[in-house]
């Protein structure tokens, strides 16, 4: 029996429908949410993601602001663009598209973002709130991919409380922050964060009720590693040439054999990616609504 699909495309589309109504209500009260993006360089993937974010904004009625810099922009150029976005009143929230080019101090750039405009939830103040407010509602942006994963699972009626969750990968946008979200009292899961130094990954994954695979290694979650019926969230992105069409295609961390054994699996593409985009819009709308609540 093959796994049921965690359909990120259709959940994201439903969320965008809900956001459109909330944006209309905000505009009626004189609040226009505006998402800014800062893109440095001409990496085709990053350009595609940023273009998608602006298309999403147009779809739900959020204004959008772009800061595009060439690949040879200096640390000072990038920091100046961050300051412009901090000061622009039309920009109510923004992201710095990652990764930044080699040689740029990413942490220094992220720390300069106004925490109240941090639509990615990656500013140290906002990550710190996740640590400190473990029992309370967090009233700042949450990292988009982790938030999207939880929303995707919960909107399919799957409960995470008490579940054993194994995360593969300790990256800043997924692996590290997702543990903070999943172990909050409101979610109440138990998390093991694995990485390249982990010994006997297979044994850990085999125990997991839920696997969040964000290693970026094609097929790293193999069939023999998965507990029958487990929930597999495929986040990792690798690219390869499709032998039939000759075109580049995305492949995930979950092997087709693992997906057969699972109870639920998120397709890749079509699972976590669209949810990441929808959560960015949610962060911007949530934060605009907070300004009205005072
Ligand atoms: N500042 C940030 N940078 C990056 C983040 C992030 O959350 N904040 N995450 C990724 C890139 N990303 C958003 O920025 C992103 C990745 C993938 C998708 C998506 O919809 N993917 C499609 C497939 C696309 C393809 O074929 O290439 C899917 O999964 O269906 C959206 C956003 C790194 N940088």
Automatic annotation (TrEMBL):
InterPro entries: Aminoacid_DH-like_N_sf, NAD(P)-bd_dom_sf, THF_DH/CycHdrlase, THF_DH/CycHdrlase_cat_dom, THF_DH/CycHdrlase_NAD-bd_dom
Limits of the Tetrahydrofolate dehydrogenase/cyclohydrolase NAD(P)-binding domain: 143-290
Pathway, per record: One-carbon metabolism; tetrahydrofolate interconversion
Family matches, as SUPFAM superfamilies: Aminoacid dehydrogenase-like, N-terminal domain, NAD(P)-binding Rossmann-fold domains
Domain Tetrahydrofolate dehydrogenase/cyclohydrolase catalytic: 6-120
Record bears the keyword Hydrolase: yes
Keyword terms: Amino-acid biosynthesis, Histidine biosynthesis, Hydrolase, Methionine biosynthesis, Multifunctional enzyme, NADP, One-carbon metabolism, Oxidoreductase, Purine biosynthesis
Known catalytic reactions: (6R)-5,10-methenyltetrahydrofolate + H2O = (6R)-10-formyltetrahydrofolate + H(+); (6R)-5,10-methylene-5,6,7,8-tetrahydrofolate + NADP(+) = (6R)-5,10-methenyltetrahydrofolate + NADPH
Protein name per UniProt: Bifunctional protein FolD
Naturally occurring in which organism (per UniProt): Promicromonospora alba
Taxonomic lineage from the root: Bacteria, Bacillati, Actinomycetota, Actinomycetes, Micrococcales
Gene: folD
């Amino acid at each position: 029996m093959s796994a049921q699909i965690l359909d990120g495309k259709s959940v994201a589309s439903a969320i965008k429908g809900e956001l459109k109504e909330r944006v209309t209500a905000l505009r009626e009260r004189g609040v226009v949410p505006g998402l800014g993006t800062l893109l440095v360089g001409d990496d085709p993937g990053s350009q595609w993601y940023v273009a998608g974010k602006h298309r999403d904004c147009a779809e739900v009625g959020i204004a959008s602001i772009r800061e595009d810099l060439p690949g040879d922009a200096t640390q000072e150029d990038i920091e100046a663009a961050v300051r412009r976005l901090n000061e622009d009143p039309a920009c109510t929230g923004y992201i710095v598209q990652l990764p930044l080019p080699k040689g740029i101090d990413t942490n220094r750039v992220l720390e300069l973002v106004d925490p109240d405009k941090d639509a990615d939830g990656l500013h140290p103040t906002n990550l710190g709130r996740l640590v400190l407010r473990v029992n309370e509602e967090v009233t700042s942006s949450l990292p988009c991919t982790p938030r999207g994963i939880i929303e995707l699972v919960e909107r399919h009626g799957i409960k995470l409380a008490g579940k054993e969750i194994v995360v593969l990968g300790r990256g800043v946008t997924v692996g590290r922050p997702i543990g903070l979200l999943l172990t909050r009292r409101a979610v109440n899961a138990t998390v093991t964060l694995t990485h390249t130094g982990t010994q006997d990954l297979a044994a850990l994954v085999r125990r997991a009720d839920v696997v969040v695979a964000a290693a970026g290694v094609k097929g790293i979650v193999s069939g023999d590693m998965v507990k029958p019926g487990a929930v597999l969230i495929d986040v990792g992105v690798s690219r390869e040439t499709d032998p039939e069409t000759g075109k580049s295609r995305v492949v995930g961390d979950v092997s087709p054999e693992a997906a057969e054994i699972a109870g639920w699996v998120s397709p890749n593409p079509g699972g976590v990616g669209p949810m990441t985009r929808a959560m960015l819009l949610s962060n911007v709308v949530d934060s605009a609504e907070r300004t009205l609540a005072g």
